[in-house]
Amino acid sequence: MSETLRFEAFSSMVEPEFWSGLAHHKLHSARLDTARAVVRGEFSGGRRHAVRGNSTEPTQRLAVPARLRVNQGAWEAVQGNTQQQTGAVGVNGYLHNTNTIEEFKKRDKGELLRDAGAEILEAIRSGRATQAPELLWPFLLLSFADLKKYHFYHWFAFPAVTADPPDMATEPPAPLSSFVSRSSDLEHLLTTFAGTSVCAQGAFVARYYPSNADNPWRVGPLSEWSEIYGSGKAEDGGIALLGFVDPSSHSTRPGWPLRNLLTWLRHCHPEATNVNVLCFRDTALLAGGPVDGATLVQQCESIVLRVNVTSVVSLTSECQVSGWERNEKQKLVPRIVNLSSTMDPVRLAESALDLNLQLMRWRLAPSIDLAKIAGTRALLVGAGTLGAYTARVLLAWGMRKITFVDNGRVSFSNPARQPLYDFEDSLDGGKPKAEAAASSMRKIFPNIDSQGIQMTIPMPGHSISASEMDSTRATVARLDELVASHDVIFLLTDSRESRWLPTLLGTLHRKIVICVALGFDSYVAMRHGVYAHDDDFGPMGAPKAADSSEAVRLGCYFCNDVVAPTDSLSDRTLDQQCTVTRPGLAPIASGTAVELLTTILQHPQGRHAPPAAPGANDSAGEFGDPEHQIRGYLIGFRQHAIVGQASSLCTACSPSVINAYRQHGFDFLLRAFNNTLVSEDAPHCAAEDGADAPADYSYLETLTGLAALHRQTDTMLETIEWSESDDDFEAI
Known about the structure:
Blueprint: E1 3-4, E2 10-14, H1 16-30, E3 37-43, E4 49-51, E5 60-62, E6 66-70, H2 73-76, E7 89-98, H3 101-106, H4 109-126, H5 128-131, E8 139-146, E9 151-161, E10 168-169, E11 174-175, H6 176-179, H7 183-194, H8 198-201, E12 203-208, E13 217-220, H9 225-228, E14 239-245, H10 257-268, E15 274-280, H11 284-287, H12 293-299, E16 303-308, E17 321-324, E18 335-338, H13 345-362, H14 370-374, E19 377-381, H15 385-396, E20 401-406, H16 433-444, E21 449-454, H17 469-484, E22 488-491, H18 500-508, E23 512-518, E24 522-527, H19 574-577, H20 585-601, E25 629-633, E26 638-642, H21 655-664, H22 666-673, E27 678-679, E28 682-686, H23 699-704, H24 706-719
Parallel strand pairs: 2-6, 7-8, 14-15, 19-20, 19-22, 20-21, 22-23
Antiparallel strand pairs: 1-10, 3-7, 4-5, 8-9, 9-17, 9-18, 10-16, 11-16, 12-13, 12-14, 15-16, 23-24, 24-25, 25-26, 27-28
């Protein structure tokens, strides 16, 4: 007795890694583009699960839903890198990812199905489905990824062309194990599948020869229909079958792929009105080792149907298409996956940080190189107010390596002004600032590589005693190592002289050096010029020629000074010991300094980028050309960009200073720290008692030529005749 052929619908099974891939696709590839994307899925033969009863009840075999699996390989498959399970059938899926939840809800689901159905019909008409049967079984995925909450709204569809009137099953399904004449024929069928790729294609044509015990099966792709199936008659003694990999484990219902396969059949071979359909479900047995015939009979899940195929109908886009997935209650509603509770909180924090940065690339800065910023290693010399704010802005830009250098401890006045510290840090004499700052950064963002180095930086004008010699030498070596191992050096200390040694080392190693300084209601954020090549320092011990590239290098923090840095910390009143500045100034200055850095990093010339030319409207960098100095004032809320060239007399970055350090090393630094007086004729030797040394000038001033400049100025002033008579005034 015939009855309407009913099908077991697909049920999606999505691994969590796929949603991570979707998040990455949205952020880095699609952004605001809602054009459909191709992903891959797969299905294999359905098998019932054995459920053991108690001692008095037999083991039961329960059907499970027909699964279409989508995993992390869905994204790799587009490039052909996927690895399917043995016996699995790979299929294309079409992802329609929306930008808003409202767009997700309003999307015309019927239109999506009709479009997919039209593509299936076109593949059948053109013959492409005959060559590639997977084109009969595409799936749709409509989605919205809420990447702030890690909620993924989605709805799968498995488009199927509806037969009208429906196809009929003329006989009850027969287990394949009873359909064949011998158990060995099952072994031969599995061996045949294992030796060909027809099973991986998902559909095939077969002929079974019951009388041929040695070679009972002939199996081939759909393209060999005429050779294998022929007219479907058994005049050669064989039984022709149309076969497919059946994901269903239901005892009587075939899986969803058969619907479109029968549509293919009624169009391509309308003469086949009554067919035997082999619903092959035993793909799992292909992955195992050889199985004897008796065991196969017990484990075989495949069935054979006798189907009366509806006569051909016009294959047009008007054909009815169905296939949206129903939930467990059989309702047509979308689903939501919440991964926030299952994901590692640290990973969630990292994804959330990257999200805010990636959003810049969607509309505002599509060419920004975030990886370059994230990979930049920052050394912060000073972990006070400027250091704390600078570190937070660097972290907001996604930098993962931040090192602090400071010699202070957290005091009770710090937490209110310095956002990396709290009240607990100031108890019991205060925690070391550098270590506390690094610890705070790791609490804010656990994936950051942040270290705190407790260090007192040697400074010009601060004499080094004999007992301090070894520790100072070690400190200099450690600081030199830190500067060399980082990409950008921020100078954020309270005193001028504490910036001298990091400036010298940053110049020597040709690093990006950014200096920030505060007044009461004004600030400066500036970058130091970088030598183009190591040999731009000039020959060892000799200054660079005046007409060289040195003349166009940007100046450093000390280039405008006409005196060498000296002790500014001794004999100070309370207001001079503290950085007295308007509270809102530090975050403004720190933010400006970090934005100056990102502008440098996004410029094609990087650290050698020239400042913006006056009146120029075009620039080469994503964020424009980086300025040399930015000076801001809270009074009037004004800001100026200033450009200053490097000075050949600079006590920190001039070739004479760099080469003196390269040649004499720590001995040179020791003379600078101790302000040793020297003879102008022998600037690298200490002046002996009674020598004709300029008593009013320091070692650095004599070395660089500042002392000579001062004497020339004094001589010129002495030759000027000043008049104090009222008669000398000109009447106006």
